[in-house]
Amino acid sequence: MKDGELQREHDWFRTVLDLIPDGVCFTDLKGRILLVNRSAGELAGRDPEELVGGNVSLFYSTDGRKSDIDELRKGEPAREEVEFRRPDSSVLPVRVTYKLVDHMEGVGEALVETYEDLTECRELDQVRNEFVFVAAHELRNPVTAMKLLLDMFTDDKRFEVGPIAKDYVEKMQEATERLIQLVDDLLEVARTESGRLKIELKPVNAVEMIDTILVEIESLAKPNQITVRHDGNADCSLVMSDSDKLKEIISNLVSNAIKYNRVGGTVTVSHEPDSNGFLVVHVADTGIGLGPEDQKRVFTKFWRSEEVAVRAQAGTGLGLFIVKELVERMGGRVWFESELGQGSTFSFSLPLAEGR
How far is Cα 309 from Cα 311, in angstroms, rounded to an integer? Predict the structure, then answer.
């Protein structure tokens, strides 16, 4: 190719690159910038020409940079959300997408990074969270009143209710309980994402908490003859947590293990201290398990599997999202192991209280 043709092709490519509304940046595998478009410079608050030759760590933290080359070589892009640090000290939320290219002239393998400004998305999220919080809060009172009136009606001996009417009332009570759970879950999510969630950390006896929850939740296991066991001793049972939030975490995991189990199955709750000063709690079941694709999204808000056995059960898709948020906000982490058709084990850790 002649020099003039090469220059025209380069100019054409540069023009097209600068017309792309999202930021685009070509880097070597160490993050050194080889080429960058105008939008990327604007997002970073810097002159694009000045960025060339520098490192992407100049404007965002690369500590957790998703540049696992072996994974990227499989052809799938990787994504993460980062914060761009700009010269005026402002911070910009950005979604970074990485893609490996294996034949960049003069470099060999290189990364193409695209940058999407998330500012508007975050603002919309804030408005949406505010709406959900207000709506759920306003729903809570009338729904609670409905439950109270139904309970009073069934407990009042002055009313003689026939079997058909009694069945209707019981179904109304069950529906009201599900509605209250939905409203409570929506409120919890809204509090978490709007900064209203209040957590008071203090020593809590996790073992006693587990025993109490298993007694309360026993009625959920009876219809399908599911055995619920608590294995473990009382040693190292005090954890630093919010008592109400810990109860919510354990209740969510145990009720899921019962709900998505097989008839005659087993749920086992166990715990042990680890070597890092944490109590690790496991909730294992012999249920339907999760396939590889479902495992990627299990903690996603409002997500539910398309498996028939899952859809047959009532649910909001919020339980595991809430569990993860609460555990992490109390200084722990949550993880799981699962195999489709073989069951799942969900585990979480929380810091042990001093003196155990």
Answer: 6
